[in-house]
Give the backbone structure.
Amino acid sequence: MKEFFGLAKFSDGSYHYIREAEGAWSWQHILIVCVFMAVMVTLAVVLGRRNRNASEQQKNRVLVACAFLINGFEIVKIVVVCIRCQDIGHLLYLLPLFLCSVQLIAIPLAAFCRGRVKEAALDFVLIFGILGAVFGTIGAAQNYNAYPVLSMDNVFSGVTHSISGFASLYIALSGMTSMKRKNAPITLAILLCVSLVAYIANVLLDYNYMFLMNHDGTPYSIFYNLVNGNPVLYPLIVVGLFVAYIFVAYLACRCVEKQKEKVEADCR
């Protein structure tokens, strides 16, 4: 268990993993992310279809469980990382200011709030949950270069990202989707507020929340290289992509609704 949590103590007093990382796109990396994705999709389909005609309260219980689980895993991870670093100040580098980490806040809002805030939070989880799950597991190749596949860092990260993806699919399949145009400004405000706080934290801490300062091996490298790492254009492009993604998601849902209404009208 010490090795799984990276708590093997070395002679210099530091904590590390004894095993070496298997590496990005190794068969171990590919296998474990496929397991995460398979479990995520299977549970979402089974529970989503089962609760399709259930009461809103019954549907919401699954999101409540997601809220406790995702934050529970993250709290344990933060505590262990701080123990390994032997520095409580390391908490400043573990804030929920990555796009995937916002689900630590968005899922509880979707589970426990009411009215338009709940609807906007449901929209946010639906829009970004599955995206974060894919990029945070399959796309997080740099993590598998840094840590062993069967380690807390990779397993807990895979679990929390998969919970986000599960919640996104579950909301869609169980009929909890709202995607009302009037709630789009709230969804957008959540994103822009987190992006602003992340940028300020990056400047103060010399960090890379939301990948606003550097691509760090992610697909954002396409845009980073396109503008030669310009410190103004690059973060604007990243945030602009998030905003565009939100509008495309709302537009796509609106098109689906119109098509559904047309089919229902034809059936009459």
Observations:
- The beta strands are 8-9, 15-16.
- The mean pLDDT is 91.
- The two ends are 62 Å apart (CA to CA).
- The CA atoms of residues 95 and 101 lie 8 Å apart.
